[in-house]
Amino acid sequence: MKKRFLAMVLAAAMMLTAMVGCGNGNTQDGGNANNAGATGDTIKIGGLAPLTGDVSVYGVAVDNGVKMAVEEINADGGVLGKQIEYIVYDEKGDATEAVNAYNKLVQSDNVVAIVGDVTSKPTLAVAQQAAKDKIPLITASGTAENITQAGENIFRACFIDPFQGELMASYASKKLEKKTAAIIYNISDDYSKGLYEAFEAAAGDLGIEVVQVEGYGKGTVDFKAQLTNIKSKNPDVIFLPVYYQDVALIAVQAKELGIEAQFLGADGWDGVIGQVDESNMDAVNGAYFCSQYSAQSDDPNLQAFLSKYKETYGMDASQFAVLGYDAMKMLAQAISEAGSTDSAAITSAMAAIDFTGLTGHMTFDENRNPVKSAAITQIDNGEYKFIEYYEK
Prior knowledge:
Elements: H1 2-21, E1 42-49, H2 56-75, E2 83-90, H3 95-107, E3 113-115, H4 120-133, E4 137-139, E5 154-156, H5 161-175, E6 180-186, H6 190-206, E7 209-216, H7 224-231, E8 237-239, H8 244-256, E9 262-265, E10 288-291, H9 300-313, H10 319-338, H11 343-351, E11 355-357, E12 360-364, E13 370-371, E14 374-380, E15 383-390
């Protein structure tokens, strides 16, 4: 009897050990998330975005796009027979807040993958941690080149900064036939610095002379000193690789100084029309910037999304909303094609994905950056006007 009892105790102990061993696979040593975040009828996917603070306009738009994608996916039966449970945290545009929120998603919520972050600095901080944990992560809009270099499980749905800088230099030379350029960039921002450096290098190769480069720090609102220096050089174009709030200030002050050079920009310009009052709209008239998509596209899926977005949120969708939608759709497709919520399986499926979304057809290159064209947009009398899709 004692032997039988001892055998029963040992068997129970072995079962308990096995159960403990089947916990969350998102370990610091890179274990696979086989069952974590996929319990019951749901698959947990995390989200990180600045929903409040200085860059909340981007975070809210991405989050709205992601939520619309989740709603559609779930209405269509979900993924692997389960509904997606999307858990998002506000990181306020701060890298430390982003890492704290990431840890909560992984350690407490047990998500299988993450859509986020939104701006480059928090995204890089989170990507470095996700690479250690082997958590599949896709950023909708983090453009700094080194983000995906953090690890083989880090992807993005948007262009990288160097691509945009090189593309706009190519456009200035080959399409606009410009010969001289000046640059104003934000020395406090990696996004702005990356674009500036890429544009300057490409311009030199293309025969465009960069006659003046001016920098400014975070919080600057008076740009007249920089603009006065640029005016003395009389460049054909001014490349302005900054976000739309600063674009509006700089363009209006350039107008006040009588500068007539044509402005060029990148995807951070999206939203600038809303920042310029009607009396100063001519300050940005004729400017060109590259973007991830064109709202003038005749793609029925894009037009349906834009209509539904406006109906749901009472405003027009920006490229950040469109990219958020595509990022979540790509992740869902990868999970479906992996046939599993295992971290390594999702990562492999993402790397090999062939995806068509609202921003067009794309695959990933060896650095997990999307291979796709850019939409060239011009500001024309207070409206965004699609010009063409362009490849450098």
